Amino acid sequence: MGSLPLNPDVLIVGAGPVGLFAALRLGQAGVSVTILKDSGLSQLPRACMFYPQPQFALAEAGIWDAIIKGGGFRSTGLDIPISMLNMAQPELTKVLMEKATETGRVQVLFNKELVSILKDGTDGSEVVTIAVKDVKTEQVEEHTASFLVGSDGNRSKTRSLLGISFPGHTWPEKLIATDVWLQNTEDSPVTTTILMEPVHYTIITPLTPPVKGEVTKWRLTFAVDPEELKTKTEAELLSEEYISHHYQRAWAGPRPFTYKIDRAATYTIHQRLASNLRRGRCLLAGDTAHVNNVIGGLGLSNCLMESVALSDALILVLKDGKPVDPILTMYSDERRQVFQFFIDSVSSWVS
């Protein structure tokens, strides 16, 4: 990676699927990218289902075979031209990172924390400059690029430093997402199940292809009663005793049954949209730009398409010589409209 430029075309803060997929497409177009991540790649149980449109985008990028080899599979179910893609987010992230760096134009620097944005491009300059701290050595250094992308999650340091507001609301429930190994006792024509309970609504979907009589890794996510949040600690919510109670409620089949929890995490559900996805030469994408109720699987599917829109916009400017202001403003306006007129309303409806 030492042959990559010290000052790349694009700096991306955050090494999740959104930043990595944008970097992959930029790298394929010959754009140099440096990704900064304050820790390692996340292993938390997050998104795991993807609609057809991002599947087309992944295939168009030439990485579909790697997606399937890396653990993705198409689920069975309704007779539609393309089924849902099931793949745990950590596995998707791993594939995207490998393929992005293989372009020879993308490097990922871990343990690098964004400290400040020194130049954001609003003064008419053609560069952005940021200060970055090495979390191990505490050394602070400056990085310069033509553009900066913040894709560092819903608690984004990038968005905060840019002074972009994040209005919206927080749902009263919390979700507990678990990846768990369970034995399949029956064949089901539909592999994803949603239990429409008034309080503990639950979604169950496989993370490995389910076969009757064999053990499969499943994502089992359920809502926590807001009243319980007043009395239970985070540790109690993630205790095996509490989670097992909900497995007994939600998992079909004979009793007793055995299980092995691979990973679990709690999530607060937000419905928020950044007031702008652009300031000067700095852009926001993914959860940094908007967050929504995850039930229904719209979150990362929408965000992967945002990676496409973002990389297309930057390629138009960097490679095709298109003017910066109208292209970046169009990106911000159009991506906000997608959330305002579709993602927000549909994901709120399923809450």
TrEMBL record:
Could you tell me which species this protein originates from? Colletotrichum phormii
Judging by the UniProt lineage, the source's domain of life is Eukaryota
Q: Which Gene3D superfamilies match?
A: D-Amino Acid Oxidase, subunit A, domain 2, FAD/NAD(P)-binding domain
Question: Which keywords does the record carry?
Answer: FAD, Flavoprotein, Monooxygenase, Oxidoreductase
Q: Which residues form the FAD-binding domain?
A: 9-341
An MF annotation (GO) of this entry = FAD binding
Q: Which InterPro entries match?
A: FAD-bd, FAD/NAD-bd_sf, PheA/TfdB_FAD_monoxygenase
Can you say what this protein is called? FAD-binding monooxygenase
